[in-house]
Amino acid sequence: MSEPKLEGLVPDALQVRSARILLESLEVELDIGFHEFEVGAPQRLIVSVEIWLDRAAVPADDDPQLAWNYDFLRTEVREIARSRRFNLQETFAHAVFERLAAFRGVRALRIRTSKPDVYPDAHGVGIEIASFDGLWPGS
Predict the structure, then answer these.
(1) For a Cys staple, 108 with which of 38, 52, 95, 100, CB 3.0–4.6 Å?
(2) In CATH, what number is assigned to the domain containing residue 90?
């Protein structure tokens, strides 16, 4: 028995207008920091990536070849973390940003990093960079 097709029932005001891929709170370990006690002592860094896509449509026929591969995204971030030593979170975040911004289909991008082990009374200290002003693209 085939599934019923429920097309054309969603009002125009409720049509999908934006699609976003999320990689939230990926923990990586890398050599980062400029203080003497940080150099050569890998630290945990929490990385979140938000990618707004050019196309908000669902991939045709549920085809995974037409969708973003989460494993690929995770691998790219981990590869950058292993690629070199970083003095600053800003430098690392920009390296991730530049790599991901170069891929086809990216309309907007936000990268957030945080060191969770710096202050005992804070969840973390970090930075956020985005390809847009405000809280959301186009806001």
Answers:
(1) 52
(2) 3.30.1130.10
